[in-house]
Amino acid sequence: xxxxxxxxxxxxxxxxxxxxxxxxxxxxxxxxxxxxxxxxxxxxxxxxxxxxxxxxxxxxxxxxxxxxxxxxxxxxxxxxxxxxxxxxxxxxxxxxxxxxxxxxxxxxxxxxxxxxxxxxxxxxxxxxxxxxxxxxxxxxxxxxxxxxxxxxxxxxxxxxxxxxxxxxxxxxxxxxxxxxxxxxxxxxxxxxxxxxxxxxxxxxxxxxxxxxxxxxxxxxxxxxxxxxxxxxxxxxxxxxxxxxxxxxxxxxxxxxxxxxxxxxxxxxxxxxxxxxxxxxxxxxxxxxxxxxxxxxxxxxxxxxxxxxxxxxx
Length: 313
Fold this sequence. Notes:
Blueprint: H1 6-12, H2 21-52, H3 63-69, H4 71-79, H5 82-96, H6 112-136, E1 140-142, H7 147-183, H8 187-190, H9 192-200, H10 209-233, H11 237-253, E2 254-255, E3 266-268, H12 278-300
Helix pairs in contact: 1-10, 2-3, 2-4, 2-5, 2-7, 3-4, 5-7, 6-11, 6-12, 7-9, 7-11, 9-10, 10-11, 10-12
């Protein structure tokens, strides 16, 4: 694979003179503030509505946890990622004097071809990884949602999952990566720092240390792929599609998280559950890495029909 950096060089040079390190820090603070505010609003208002309206879902007496594990809670929680978009819009306007679309790429529009290729590639490799995970742990059961209800919620879940994944990509592979790349030459700064922050957010207090370690390794590898896609294309399109494909698999097809399985057709053994060994964790990490490497081949190999290319300004 030969990787041309021309598109990324255009992207990293696109910020204006207001993209200083101080303004980047202030802008990040704005985004975090709006994200946290929206999250708190959703949590408290949603939990209140869940209790008062007696919505369907778990009833363990831990009201906020019950709300988040309910179908209403999952849908509502995903809307909290709108806070990232609001914060990014304000940060770009107030701190940098640029339109929000500048984060997407030099063309200032999502590459449709890159988006679709990223989405299809990850859906294919997710199937590959699920087969391997089934071989490792064949405890897969039909989810509680009826197929008719699944069809009813299919479009809302897809839209809300896009809201979530696009906001994360705009922040970590857009705002932070673009801003840092315009100031620093080393990828150890502009690629590694946003990647580490993104990975750290996936730590789960409900999982064991070994399972957390394997999940974080898998997430870090996937984050590296997403960064590489931006590097190759100079656009967020392919990364948006890949990230969306990954999350849709977990939300709608096979869930590995007990707290997010309300809309999945099938439920696998939850990663936060008991019974996982250290060797299981090693194999799960290996499967995650292998799946990401296969995705990389599908999207970057010169003979692949899903190969992505540079964004045209």
